[in-house]
Design a protein that fits this description.
Blueprint (H helix, E strand, L loop, with lengths): L3 H10 L4 E4 L6 E4 L2 E4 L7 H16 L4 H9 L7 E4 L3 H6 L2 H9 L1 H8 L1 E5 L24 H7 L3 E2 L2 H25 L5 H9 L18 E8 L18 H13 L2 E8 L16 E4 L7 H9 L33 H11 L1
Parallel strand pairs: 1-4, 5-6, 5-7, 7-8, 8-9
Antiparallel strand pairs: 1-2, 2-3
Helix pairs in contact: 7-11
């Protein structure tokens, strides 16, 4: 069993200023201002209790803790303070076998926190920027999956994500073939209309089971930009039925559920009041090439997502004062053009 003399002898040899003892982890030494984990094994409750009793006995016997430490350190100038963390008094009163089990599972708990279930089109097909003049040919893009992996998180849904790649590529190929068929070289308006069409990423396969993770993230994505205004349709302003079911399933399966919205403009969020279990909503807009790393920094708590929205997201579309006059919704852009022209 580890003794106070063992600890202080090693600490003195390393020129440590403090010794920190915590149930479930190895002792740590403060050396040059930094806490360094020692090579001792993890502290079990009996070890911690024995060390605390040694310190108390030294005071009861008239031997001060400072003298004890100085004797081990071999100098009167160095005082090694023992920091007994995690409620040692309570540790003594709790059954030893329970605490030993907790200590043995300590590392497993840390690993469990690093496991993330990741779903949604925006996980791998993260939209970094808008359409039209908002479009650029970037050198690279870090998607949200890559960003989370870069932070050392383990993704437990790689089977779903790999299958999604197959589904996405198949649907994109079909979209491009159909788009090519509809292009009329003798109709410039038709050509521009086809070029303005944006591919709607498929939802992916149904989510049917829980993976080994407490936390789940679903990335909902929508493109936006020049010639890409919102339409009052499912799959655009409103959720597809498949998206609704996927989000509902994730919220019910996992202990912690985060909905990430990767979109350049607002969408309908009325479903949030209908689906129970959505613990957080993170609106990440379209953040550019390093978007995945930025989102991962928020998810891991490295930074605080304290930004404020630059516009108001209404409860219902009809709450917008000019909702009935927006030309694109009613396919009457010519009338809107005349109205604007009359103003100027």
């Amino acid at each position: 069993m580890l003794t106070i003399e063992d600890l202080l002898t090693v600490a003195a040899g390393a020129n440590a200023s403090d010794v920190h003892i915590t149930v479930g982890v190895p002792p740590k030494f403060r050396i040059n201002g930094s806490l360094i984990t020692s090579e001792f094994p993890r502290m079990l409750p009996p070890d911690t209790e024995a060390i605390m009793n040694d310190i108390l006995d030294s005071f009861e016997n008239g031997t001060s803790g400072v003298s004890l430490v100085d004797g081990c350190a071999g100098t009167g100038k160095t005082v090694l303070a023992i920091s007994l963390i995690n409620s040692l008094i309570n540790a003594i009163n709790i059954e030893d076998d329970l605490l030993e089990a907790q200590a043995s599972e300590f590392d497993d708990d840390i690993d469990e926190d690093k496991k993330i279930a990741l779903y949604g089109p925006g996980a791998t097909k993260t939209i970094k920027g808008g359409t039209g003049s908002g479009e650029v040919k970037e050198r690279y893009v870090v998607n949200i999956l890559e960003g989370l992996v870069n932070k050392g998180l383990e993704i437990t849904t790689m089977d779903w994500l790999n299958e999604y790649e197959t589904i996405y590529n198949r649907e994109l190929s079909k979209f491009n073939k159909e788009k090519k068929k509809k292009v009329n070289l003798f109709n410039i308006t038709g050509i521009m209309g086809q070029l303005a069409l944006e591919f709607q990423a498929p939802v992916g396969s149904r989510i049917t089971r829980k993976t080994i993770a407490d936390t789940c993230i679903y990335v909902l994505c929508r493109q936006a930009g020049e010639a890409g205004d919102r339409k009052l349709e499912k799959g655009d302003y409103y959720l597809l039925d498949e998206e609704y079911e996927a989000i509902k399933k994730c919220a019910s399966l996992y202990k912690n559920f985060i909905l990430v919205i990767n979109a350049g403009s607002s969408i309908d969020l009325s479903f949030v009041d209908e689906i129970k279990g959505i613990d957080a909503i993170l609106y990440v807009s379209q953040l550019g090439m390093e978007m995945g790393n930025a989102v991962a920094s928020i998810i891991t708590g490295e930074v605080n997502p304290s930004g404020k929205l630059t516009n108001t997201w209404v409860n219902n579309y009809s709450d917008i004062p000019f909702s009935n006059e927006y030309a694109l919704v009613f396919s009457n852009t010519f009338a809107e053009f005349l109205t604007v022209s009359e103003i100027f």
